[in-house]
TrEMBL record:
It comes from Thioalkalivibrio halophilus. This is phosphoglucomutase (alpha-D-glucose-1,6-bisphosphate-dependent). Its EC number is 5.4.2.2. One of its GO terms (cellular component) is cytosol. It catalyses: alpha-D-glucose 1-phosphate = alpha-D-glucose 6-phosphate.
Length: 544
């Protein structure tokens, strides 16, 4: 079959963000747009020649078309074999597992995670390396540099169409293509990590759960794991069918977007356990009956209870959290006598720590937790961790969290997002705070003394690489913190994120409203960044 070498010109907006390249579907459908980026991956990653590539996505609109294009390009670029999930589906953690279990050289994952899908929605693509994780900055920089110098891409001339809907092995111009079950290997891995027997017993009793797949990729995973293998009632899974537009919803697992789940869990006769995952299956929301578990607390509770889980029988060695994540897990690590690393936002920064065996558990405040079983955050893994824990401790979610607070204190935490603001306005807030950083230590804000303030930079302890400009931190003597950061996953304008936390150990003050407890710090942050004046916004769009 003939190969076309198509002349093209760089698009100036192909710099990957926190998690790959994300744009409006209309942008991705512009002639040559996807092709340029994919060619930039092949050009900058010569190891893919003759090697195995994993390919799949979260099922959003344009997923199948993009997969056909990538298959034709992979064949024209000399890739040896492409492993595709049936229906073009692969959750992000399942793709990570396939790379690792098959010894593949990388993956292209098609997703814009929790961003809305459909013709008017978003699309995305990210490259994962042979270790299974998101490409580190050195690799994304190389891809970006190549995208800015690109002149040609290679693609099979004929618009062949590979059948993605049946498990099969075929060839495309000499390249092997294997369509695999997207769930099976991942489900087997989960079975190795957790005590399925104990969870089955829990679910066989009167324990009830709800899982909201949000019409995104986790539906088939949840049905196989929770219903088929663990015996949950089929009606436990809400919105199980993956849809191109996620049923018109926003596949972001938080209380605002998982409304049906929230109503069930906070209504009369609520189930014992509720959970949800996002578009590509790497995030998790954990709820008890009438009870919300913050992601930062969830990570800390996992660390404190890891010894109950078979996968962690040999201990944790170390843990890590992204910088804006609350320090709840630090407190646990200290009690366990293990190191706790603080990395920039984005899963790619955990990769080296996991590969080097320094940590076995890590997480982010943005509803992401995972361990060394893959190199991505993993939504269903977190759900199974909690179910395993509930099966062992036989207490409610709320009791487990409250006992944790009694032992370690409570890290009151909130994130305020100002979405879709003009980029200049967001930069102006960051500049204002950055200008004030040096004067802050020793000053009193919200009745508390500032201990230190900086622009967070991270030196990777494994390879010595440095990531700068990762968020502005104001740290108080009490341990409280205010963090300012700009989102790197949006597709329109800018999103300013404000993260606030304060540790409380007084047993009489563990059951307060976080927004009230944190109000003085929230107000101080607003003043510090002159947020209303510089953005024209009186209040945030989303509070988590
Ligand atoms: C957000 C989160 C970050 C997460 C990233 C990708 O990034 O804050 O913690 O790793 O999304 O998650 P940002 O730059 O918008 O703050 V996912 O589930 O969207 O791949
Ligand atoms: Co995601």
């Amino acid at each position: 079959m003939d190969i076309s070498v198509v002349t093209t010109h760089p698009f100036e907006d192909q710099k990957p963000g926190t998690s790959g390249l994300r744009k409006r579907v209309s942008r991705f459908r512009q002639p040559h747009y996807l092709e340029n980026f994919v060619q930039a991956v092949f050009d900058s990653q010569p190891a893919l020649e003759g090697a195995e590539l994993v390919l799949g996505g979260d099922g959003r609109f344009h997923n199948r078309e993009a997969i056909q294009t990538i298959l034709r390009m992979a064949a024209a670029n000399g890739v040896g074999r492409v492993v595709v999930g049936r229906g073009g589906l692969l959750s992000t953690p399942a793709a990570s597992h396939l790379i690792r279990s098959r010894g593949a050289t990388g993956a292209l994952i098609l997703s814009a995670s929790h961003n809305p899908g459909g013709p008017e929605g978003d699309f995305g693509i990210k490259f994962n390396t042979a270790a299974g994780g998101p490409a580190p900055p050195s690799v994304t920089d190389a891809i970006h540099a190549r995208s800015q110098a690109i002149t040609h891409y290679r693609i099979l001339k004929e618009a062949v169409h590979v059948d993605l809907d049946h498990l099969q092995a075929t060839t495309l111009n000499g390249m092997d293509v294997e369509v695999v079950d997207p769930v099976a290997a991942y489900a087997d891995l989960m079975d190795e990590l957790f005590d399925f027997h104990a969870i089955r017993e829990l679910l066989a009793g009167d324990f009830r759960l709800r899982f909201d797949a949000m019409h995104a990729v986790t539906g088939p995973y949840a049905e196989t794991l929770l219903v088929d293998r663990l015996g949950a009632a089929p009606e436990s899974i809400l919105r199980a069918e993956p849809l191109g537009d996620f049923g018109g919803g926003h596949p972001d697992p938080n209380l605002a977007h998982a409304r049906q789940l929230r109503e069930a869990m906070f209504g009369r006769d609520a189930p014992d356990f509720g959970a949800a995952s996002d578009g590509d299956g790497d995030r998790n929301l954990i709820l008890g009956r009438h009870f919300f578990v913050t992601p930062s607390d969830s990570l800390a509770i996992m660390a404190a209870n890891a010894h109950h889980i078979p996968a962690f029988a040999d201990g944790l060695r170390g843990v890590a959290r992204s910088m804006p994540t609350s320090q709840a897990v630090d407190t646990v690590a200290e009690a366990l006598g293990i190191p706790c690393y603080e990395t920039p936002t984005g899963w790619k920064f955990f990769g080296n720590l996991l590969d080097d065996g320094r940590i076995r558990l890590c997480g982010e405040e943005s509803f992401g937790t995972s361990s060394d079983h893959v190199r991505e955050k993993d939504g269903l893994w977190a759900v199974l961790f909690w179910l395993n824990l509930l099966a062992v401790r036989r207490q409610s979610v709320e009791t487990i969290v409250r006992e944790h607070w009694e032992r370690f204190g409570r890290h009151y935490y909130t994130r305020h997002d100002y979405e879709g603001i003009r980029s200049e306005h967001a930069e102006a807030v960051m500049d204002r705070v950055r200008d004030r950083l040096a004067t802050l230590p020793g000053q009193s804000l919200a009745g508390q003394t500032v201990r230190a303030a900086d622009d967070f930079a991270y030196t990777d302890p494994v390879d010595g690489s440095v990531a700068e400009g990762q968020g502005l931190r104001v740290m108080f003597e009490s341990g409280a913190r205010i963090v300012f950061r700009l989102s790197g996953t949006g597709t329109e304008g800018a999103t300013l994120r404000l993260y606030i936390e304060q540790h409380e150990t007084d047993p009489a003050r563990l059951d307060l409203d976080p927004q009230e407890v944190l109000r003085p710090l929230i107000d101080a942050a607003g003043d510090l960044g002159d947020i209303p004046a510089l953005t024209g916004r009186e209040r945030p769009d989303v509070i988590t």
